[in-house]
Amino acid sequence: MEKIKLAIQKKGRLSEKSLELIDECDISFPNSAGRLMTAAYDFPIEILFLRDDDIPGYVEDGVADIGIVGENVLVESAKEVDLVTKLGFGRCRLSIAIPRGVAYQGIADLNGKAIATSYPRLLRKYLTENQVHAEIHEISGSVEIAPSIGLAEGICDIVSTGSTLLSNGLKEVEQIFSSEAVLIRNKNLSAAKQEILDKFMFRMTSVRKAKKNKYILLNAPNEKLEEIISLLPGLSSPTVQSLAREGWSSVHSVIQDQDFWEKIEQIKSAGAEGILIMPIEKLIY
Ligand code: ATP
Ligand code: ZN
Questions:
Q1: Is pTM, for the whole model, over 0.85?
Q2: Which of 118, 235, 246, 276 has the fewest C-beta atoms lying within 10 Å of its C-beta?
Q3: Mean pLDDT in the chain?
Q4: Are 221 and 204 part of one and the same domain?
């Protein structure tokens, strides 16, 4: 039977969340410690563990059919693949930073400066768009120490909290790209593989929808039912059952994460009691 090959980061900031996503789709595979590839027991998928930088290229070549990688790495790689969906984790930004003691009025101050980065393509594009002529020093790691060792006057690197910049005496002056993990696909996937990808996506979407919603159960006096139900848009009409307690009903529905607390407060002040909120594992509609 045909299988699809999924490339994920072997070890790093995207590894845990990538594995979690696979697990949430109820796909399990043998303990893969130290291995390059493993096949799932219960889904036609093989998982390849790679360095993140290699993932776009392997997906372009078809060594892997799909992959999970940071958008920053994808765009920098300039590989020809399809972006299937953003995944909502691994959020970070690519920023230019300079030593804290150096005055900064605006982007024109970068003219004539040397900037160290592992993202020359993204940096070049940003500088060109802003008509800045700066020199780009491509280095592969420890970019943040470049100014202190005299290699460059600024850096362009990934920032998430800013603490690395701070501890290296740098300040963020320009944000050039914002990124999150994305699912990518080879451009020439066979129909059979596309079908497997669709199944994988269906599971992923059900889990994601479930995370955005909660199951809500509450008791309401019958004269307040209409008002309370109007506060519960849900997926469809809520289930209402009479309680043994005279004049009261139990209401079951699904409520979105968005404005969650506000909704609960309104429901409570409308007279609901015994409000119970439960997580949903999968949601299909
Ligand atoms: P590899 O050994 O696979 O090449 P790496 O050191 O290049 O790993 P990581 O530091 O693990 O990569 O980061 C992987 C991706 O995680 C980044 O490309 C980026 O998309 C994302 N990311 C999210 N937050 C951060 C952060 N604070 N610092 C760096 N990367 C982050
Ligand atoms: Zn890397």
A1: yes
A2: 246
A3: 94
A4: no
